[in-house]
From TrEMBL:
Protein name: Transposase
MF terms (GO), sorted A to Z: nucleic acid binding
Gene3D superfamilies assigned to the protein according to its UniProt record, in alphabetical order: Ribonuclease H-like superfamily/Ribonuclease H
InterPro entries (UniProt xref): RNaseH_sf
Native species: Popillia japonica
Superkingdom of origin organism: Eukaryota
Length: 83
């Protein structure tokens, strides 16, 4: 098996980055910004609990396509977007 150098910031191969992006969008939809870290935590927990399972499932199912894109690019960065 040959190894290739992994891109240093390969967010396209890290599904949690797409989840954090979605969480950020959900946080920005709130009428008022959290006033302290406790409010931020409460909002994030609430949004995490309300995150549809199909969002997570779609990210998991997209991983073979992400891997193929990186393989095709020979380990270089890709322009792959989240599902």
């Amino acid at each position: 098996m040959n190894r290739f150098a992994w891109p240093a910031c390969s967010s396209d191969m890290n599904p949690i980055e797409h989840v954090w992006d979605e969480m950020g969008k959900r946080l920005r939809r709130h009428v008022s910004a959290p006033r302290n870290s406790e409010e931020l935590r409460d909002i994030l927990v609430q949004e995490w609990d309300n995150l549809p399972q199909n969002v997570i499932q779609n990210l998991i199912q997209s991983m073979p396509r992400h891997l193929q894109a990186v393989f095709t690019a020979r380990g270089e960065n890709t322009c792959y977007e989240s599902p």
